[in-house]
Design goal:
Helices cover 31% and strands 24% of the residues. The chain folds into three domains: 2-81, Multidrug-efflux Transporter Regulator, Chain: A, Domain 2; 89-151, lambda repressor-like DNA-binding domains (434 Repressor (Amino-terminal Domain)), CATH 1.10.260.40; 168-264, Jelly Rolls, CATH 2.60.120.10. The chain contains nine helices and 13 strands. It has helices at residues 4-11, 15-23, 41-56, 61-73, 89-92, 96-103, 108-115, 119-126, 134-144, and strands spanning 2-3, 30-31, 37-39, 168-170, 177-181, 191-197, 201-207, 212-219, 221-226, 229-234, 238-242, 247-251, 257-264. It is globular. By secondary structure, it is α+β, with helices and mostly antiparallel strands.
Amino acid sequence: MLSIREAAKEIGVVPATIRNWEKQGIISSKRIKNGYRVFDHVDITRMRGLKRYSRENKLSVNAANIIIGRAKSQNTHDPGEEPGQGPSMGILKSEKWKQCRLERGFVLEDVARAVQISPSYLHKIENKQTNVSLDILQRLADFYGEDLLYYIADAPSDQHIVRKGGGEPIEIGLKGVLVKSLIAMSKFSLSVLLFTAEPNSGRAKSHLHHGEEFLYILSGKIHFILVNTEYVLSAGDSLSFRSSDNHAWFNREKKEARILWTYTPGRHPAAQTI
């Protein structure tokens, strides 16, 4: 059993990272009589996998956690134990790879050339005939303008209700921002998220992507920058916009803010110009 400081050193992160994973509900620690956190070999292996997928393969911690969980449910090796292996296509196999290409009007040769693989290899990926590295899958997802999570196989069953205090935690890499998904159904295009932003947290750097968004301030106050205009939004205010407009937001107040955030993924005929 290792202390949190020893565990952090073992996997190559700082203790605050482990505390954040625990806060997000990604991992759970054991406690000894004096109240200190301790971690065993299973915990270390899982956290090593979280670090490798989230940092070295540039996935969200939520995506990494899903991959590791699916690997165990399908009796495959824990990704944390095999740093040289990519995930099984049983985890990431999906008809969506081919659907995205066809929706955007690309032929195999177009996409293969853009992501630097052979057309025959792309054909195998689309037809779930091969294992493939995360690096290639991430390049494909970037080309199509989608998050890699979009391609993870759907859950085997749907749930219609998320109870109070529930929701799947999602790590989006913003310090002080806790996000939970309030949708539990598979194959559901609408995303509804609950954001809890601590003081001096948010996404200060402007960004854009495909889709449309709507947010409603449940409590607190945030500063939202849309294109070149800044709006101060308080409890009861709402805002809607196209995700292709540059946007950023920040909680500059001394109290946390809670935001109901809804967005739809973009479905454009082409993700990039070749």
